[in-house]
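Annual report, structural modelling task.

Input specification for the adenosine-5'-triphosphate complex:
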Amino acid sequence: METVSLGEAAICPGLTHRPHAASSQHRASRLSSPRGVGVFGGTFDPVHRGHVASIVDFRDRLSLARVLVIPAGVPPHRDTPASSGAQRLEMLRLAFEGETRIEIDDRELKRSGRSFMVDTLASIREELGASEPLLFALGMDAYLTLPTWHKWEALTRFAHIVALARPGIESVLPPVLQAWEAGRRVAPDALLDSAAGCIAHLELSQLDVSATAVRDRRGAGSDWRNWLTPAVADYIETRGLYLQSPDAGADDGGPARTPAEPGRLAGTTNPA
Ligand code: ATP
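The model returned the following structure:
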């Protein structure tokens, strides 16, 4: 799994690091040439305005060179997505059409066998080389489930972790995450000073919407379109998606996941 080894200089300096000590020269060069690659994964069943706003904000707040949006395959321990992998991919493309520095990445849908975020980050790290900052962002609800993910402690070998505050989600960290953050927690701005290994919490303006609520409202005939971009709403309507209960959804033949990584599919309310 780990083919690119990060030199010491690339790893988060942790508690010894002073986030505000980055030189003005460093900051100036950052402004002139965006660097750093963001990763935002999820089921996106469907992608909604909450996702779009967060991903755009994530890119802009940290001036990232690009953000990879990575839809997950079929999870065995969460309901099968109601729409296929190809449909979720297409909805993502529609949702971000015209946005620069945001790329829809289908590597998890293409990968055979089990697909874990740690492997995804390792494959991206392999492409980027050792020194490019890689930032894996996830909602606070998903972050709180991180200790249940496959090889979760290895995530920081390849990337920084960015926990995004989400409305209505209590962010009291369990002791295991508090311990993990010790020595790794930095201010968001400091993430671009190293390649991987740090953790930051980033408050973003977020919309109180979930894909579950979109599916439920669509199924119940309530207003649902406003939570989606018009192109995604049209796509759903044209294809008659989400008219059935999510349990009756399509099987897109995507990669299986194991019970060891329930929280991989972030935002899920049925993690077992
Ligand atoms: P579901 O309701 O089906 O669980 P979801 O809306 O939570 O879906 P996911 O695709 O499971 O969306 O989540 C992908 C990522 O998006 C996760 O990191 C999750 O925390 C984040 N996320 C979900 N909803 C929002 C929102 N309204 N604002 C910001 N981030 C969100």
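Confidence is low (pLDDT under 50) at residues 15-25, 246-272.
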